[in-house]
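Task card 7
Instruction: Convert sequence to structure tokens.
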Amino acid sequence: MLKQYLCQKYFLMKLFLITIVLLLLAVAGIAIKIWAKKDGKFAGTCASQSPYLNKEGESCGFCGKTPDQFDSCEEPQHS
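Output:
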């Protein structure tokens, strides 16, 4: 009984540590990506640019432009 309890406790602790390590790796990866990008900004953040995500042709919730206006867009977040 005690041996089974200790094995279960060891398994949960091991699972918890693996989870924490994976989360830390994910956060570190995002931080490195932001650090490596110019000015820490991600390019093309509007989903309206993607025909797969915006099938109805709705305007962007971030800047308000429609998909046909992105060709002549001068804003840096759409480049």
